[in-house]
Amino acid sequence: MKKNIKSTEKESGTENKSNTSGSHQYTEREDSRTGLSVETLKKAISNNLFYVQAKYPEIATRNDYYMALAYAVRDRLLQRWVASVKQYIQGKERVVSYLSAEYLLGPHLANNLINLGIYKEVEQACEELGLNLDWLIEKEVEPGLGNGGLGRLAACYMDSLATLEVPAIGYGIRYQFGIFEQDIRDGWQVEDTDNWLRRGNPWEIARRELSHDVKLGGHIQHYIDRSGKFCSNWIPELVVKGVAYDTPILGYKVNTANTLRLWKSEAPHSFDFQSFNAGEYNNAVNQKIICENISKVLYPNDEQREGKILRLQQQYFFVSCSLQDMINIHLNQGEKIEDFDKKFAVQLNDTHPAIGVVELMRLLMDEHLLDWDTSWNITTKTFAYTNHTLLPEALETWDLELFGSVLPRHLELIYEINRRFLDFVTVRFFGDNQKISNLSLIGEGKRKHVRMANLACLGSHAINGVAALHSDLLKKTVLHDWYELSPEKFSNKTNGVTPRRWIVLSNPNLTKLISEKIGEGWIKDLEELRGLEKYADDPEFQQAWMKVKLDQKKALAKKIQKRLGVKVDPESMFDIQVKRIHEYKRQHLNVLHVIALYNRIKKNPDLEIVPRTFIFAGKSAPGYRKAKLIIKLINSVGEVVNNDPDVRGRLKVVFYPNYNVTNAQKIYPAADLSEQISTAGKEASGTGNMKLSLNGALTIGTLDGANVEIRECVGEENFFLFGLTADEVAQTKAAGYKSKEYYESNAVLKEAIDQINSGYFSHLDVNTFKELTDSLMYDDQYLLFADFQSYIEAQEKAAEAFKHKEMWAKMSILNTARMGKFSSDRSIKEYCDEIWKVKSVPVEIDSIKIIEK
Ligand SMILES: *Cc1c(COP(=O)(O)O)cnc(C)c1O
Fold first, then answer.
1. Please, which residues have CB within 8 angstroms of residue 788's CB and are 6 or more apart in sequence?
2. What's the rounded Cα separation, in Å, for the pair 798 and 719?
3. What are the chain's domains?
4. pLDDT (tens digit, 9 = 90+) per residue, 516-553?
5. CA–CA dist 449, 437 (Å, integer)
6. How far apart (Å, rounded) are the C-alpha atoms in residues 561 and 569?
7. CA 399, 402, 407, 410 torsion-angle sign
8. 18-72, pLDDT tens digit by residue?
9. Nearest residue by C-alpha to atom 11 in ligand 1
10. In whole angstroms, what is the distance from residue 654 CA to residue 652 CA?
11. Which of 29, 261, 465, 545 has the fewest Cβ atoms within 10 angstroms?
């Protein structure tokens, strides 16, 4: 022991010189826990292995070492985190509160190493301990607490908020089971549970002492209080406790570490066994199970609402905990409840947390005894709402009866909010009954329902879409009446992605090449990538650029070989479509192109054709039959194409299973061609399109979502455009679109569909894909057939371009160079300036002294 202390003392001397924290003197304790030198890191890993994992090297498993390293890194986050919390939560600054039912974070370890700026040091420390860092990084099970783009956006925004040193808390649900793990058996998707916590989670800190009670169900008692005020008392059927689990989110090379606070549901109190008789005991155990169920599992639907009672309970549970938490923080600072909106800017990530509007009203009125007008004023100044979808089937509504059974008090409040609102709009739009009924918070129809988008619009001072086209269409379609009522609320905030995870972490070779040319400033100011433009014609740079791409493709090819036993040629064009499987995203249009190419080869086996590897990945909602059939179709076509000797390996089709952040990080950097082929007017923004283009892929795409802006930025000559515009889609449908006519008049399309129907890809079973082909023939809602010919022609252009290696390299470089706009830092700056009205608050490293208190 004595020897240990001595060596630590010795080290603290060397540590001081290498650290840039200025005048602050490191104490011995800080040094061993927080030092960043290779020697100190080695010691920290060894210490954690012994003191946390209780293992010594001879018996330690790979997971033990992963945990030891993770805790060593976490120690280095904590001082920044504590300093940030002190400065923000106890300070006077306005704090962003991001409410999201989903966070698709991806693994933490490597990201934290990059943001701490100690990747190299840890790599060396591991090496000297006889460990391989990559091998430990791969051991981390990612927290898959989201479905796709929406949850991943929340994760990118947390990274950017911290990097921009903006005080922020992310609130959400600590699902015990995240998005299911996908396996492919006999070409079909099968789901397995995501037990991501089974080996423990070193990145979270359970705050047992920090909890809030949430009421559910029951009924309302009305009474008149002493002052003659009409009051409501909610007698719940069930009370659930929400316990806070905090994860630090560190910014890139700054001291700011914000908090992601996720709520776990539990029964309110442990049981006093002796006080129960047998019947009550069973009852108590049942209650406990019901409570714990609320944060048990993430609903695996993307762009599809799930009208289940548990889903509503989840939404209300996390929103109530979060708002109670914010009010606590605010009041603990000695502030007045009336000033709540000055402390917190609350962003609703879609309508999932929209019940917050009513919950804040309830808390202010029922718990804090403010009057209606004061409460409503605070509420609308607090909330802002981001819409994420134009698909009518994804707009959330709740059956009124179900809603009232879970949230009786909130239903009362909604009636009252709606009564006052409709009084107002009836005057404003006198006689326009259609408009008035469109704006109502309650929808009529077969069964009455609560409209969450209307609630979010009414209760917010700002409403935004997530790409220019999407924000425009919102005003024209789903939120048209709201736009006419309050045009000043509307704005656009085009999505972005964090370059830290999506370039620096996932594509280190590209990072190195870029930084050699233009320095490292682009990592925090992505517009600096434009400095690459002047090298786009430089043959040497082109070669280096394409070498990086080829190496990424080789690495992915290796993974594919290992995972699927399929050999793919890294020199072939990697044509990639990875995203949730959905009819509007049109993976099946991509498959029709594959079949068309295959048939071309079959007719003329000696045809000169650009070899391609088609890579698909993505999960389908478990109950979404047609999406599951699309997965089966991809695999079935792959089986035929990959094994047909006539093809001679020139075409390969692979479905990479279990698309998640970990796999995405391997796939995006290896793409030559990015498939962004949704029906125009359906994809709100997309962020996969951004990640791919940033990594030098060229896009083949429609004028949908952020594709429009990507094309404007990279230049139309560097983008393969096809398909109908959103306006043309609407016109085509209005004119009575008949997909069968396209089938009859396009021989290539007809052949492909007939072939699927003949059983050619399904061992002669003519029924396997019938549901899918029938829907295309008779009810092609997403206009695959209308866009087919245009798509085939754009693919021919892409193939032609790929033959000209210098031209392709130039186009690829220009894609990356001109994508600076699509950093989530830019998005977050716009939210801060225009919606939240918050500023950066740099965290002083000196405040780390509070650790010594
Ligand atoms: C970026 C991302 C998405 C969203 O992809 P889109 O192509 O925009 O639909 C979904 N899942 C994961 C894992 C991602 O990283």
1. 589, 592, 742, 746, 749
2. 9
3. 16-93+114-138 (no CATH), 142-493 (3.40.50.2000), 569-822 (3.40.50.2000)
4. 999 999 999 999 999 999 999 999 999 999 999 999 99
5. 13
6. 11
7. positive
8. 333 333 344 444 466 778 899 999 999 999 999 999 999 999 999 999 999 999 9
9. 148
10. 7
11. 29
Look at the alpha carbons of 600, 603, 609, 610 in this order and tell me if their dihedral is positive or negative.
positive
Phi, psi (deg, nearest 5) at residue 29: -70, -45
Q: How far apart are CA 196 and CA 175, in angstroms?
A: 10
Q: Which residue's CA is the closest to the ligand 1 atom numbered 8? A: 686
Mean pLDDT of the chain: 93
Nearest to 97 by CA among 171, 161, 151: 171
Distance 203 CA to ligand 1 centre (A): 23
How many beta carbons lie within 10 A of that of residue 219, not counting itself?
13
- Find residue 844's DSSP bridge partners: none
Q: Are 317 and 265 in contact (CB under 8 A)?
A: yes
Beta bridge partners of 549: none
| 137 vs 825: CA distance, rounded Å | 26
Least Cα distance to 68 among 7, 119, 2, 140 occurs for 140
Mutate to test the pocket of ligand 1, among 150, 152, 301 (most ligand atoms within 8 A of CB): 152
Q: How far is the CA of 119 from the centre of ligand 1 (A)?
A: 26
Contact residues for 551 (Cβ-Cβ < 8 A; gap 6+): 509
Provide the β-strand partners of residue 215: 239
Report CA(148)–ligand 1 centroid distance (Å). 5
Cα dihedral: 542, 547, 552, 553 (round 10) = 100
pTM: 0.95
What is the average pLDDT across 235-248?
Answer: 97
pLDDT tens string 146-186: 999 999 999 999 999 999 999 999 999 999 999 999 999 99
Strands 449-451, 462-465: parallel, antiparallel or unpaired by DSSP? unpaired
Q: How far apart are CA 523 and CA 500, in angstroms?
A: 7
Q: At what angle do helices 109-116 and 149-163 cross, to 10 degrees?
A: 20
Instruction: Supply the residues annotated as catalytic.
Output: 388, 579-580, 585, 687, 691
- What are the tokens at 311? 């889903």
Q: How many CB atoms neighbour CB 579 within 10 A?
A: 25
Q: What pLDDT score does 21 carry?
A: 38
